[in-house]
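TEACHING EXERCISE
Course module: macromolecular assemblies
Task: Read the component lines below, then compare them to the predicted structure of the full complex.
Student: A.B.
Group: 4
Components provided:
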Amino acid sequence: MQNLNQEKIAETVAFIQSKISAKPVVGIILGSGLGGLVDELEINLALPYEEIPNFPVSTVKGHGGKLLFGKLGGKEVVMLSGRFHYYEGYSMQEVSFPVRVMKGLGAHTLMVSNAAGGMNKNFKVGDLMIINDHINLFPEHPLRGRNHETTGPRFPDMTEPYSLELVSKAKNIAKQNNILVYEGVYIGLQGPTFETKAEYKWLHIIGGDAVGMSTVPEVIVAIHAGMKVFGMSVITDLGIREEMNVITHEEVLEAANIAAPKMALIFRELIKEI
Ligand code: HPA
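Instructor-supplied answer key:
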């Protein structure tokens, strides 16, 4: 049976607290090619994943593989530079473990970013989308297994997983800084294949504006843990096109890199307002 390992979480939290006394209030998870926000962080402590007890170790190109602590936008934050994807072979408990740790350290808000394929007809490569809802198409659920009421409810409400207050604040920030942002629904699925033309079409029909291979498990666990969530996608390729488009991981990273500074600005300014 799959169980959330509360002892492991407590052990990891205690280890980190023995290294740093500051209490992070915001947890941040950066997506592929979106590590630029790291440069804005006044880093107090950088812990490589392999030095943190119970932490999974990242394998994907373009991921930093460090848990960072420091100040951003005047607040103490904890930043996961390099997330854990289900397609790498991690269990859902492993994928979402860092979110439990962030919460255990004191973070009340989770901010996530990702690279995603665009299906909304208005989208262009490099556009930013604030996630206002999601559709979970992962084959496994991070909350499957025995529930511990101390960590969250058995049947969490999902009517507003992405805080509308944070969405509204982020839209204002974007407007004030002349940054074009869209709002939309993110569909999370397992990968690692990019979608076929027929799959992109179907994902659009069922209500998706963007699709990717992350975020949803982390957000579900954050909601379960009682955190507020804000998420953004950078559109790195387009699934809805006349001609067949070939997508490569390199292309995704390149597009993400170009959009990263705009997203970093929104994240930083939003943290100031939290
Ligand atoms: N599909 C799934 N995941 C992705 C995509 C995509 O088109 N682009 C970046 N991540």
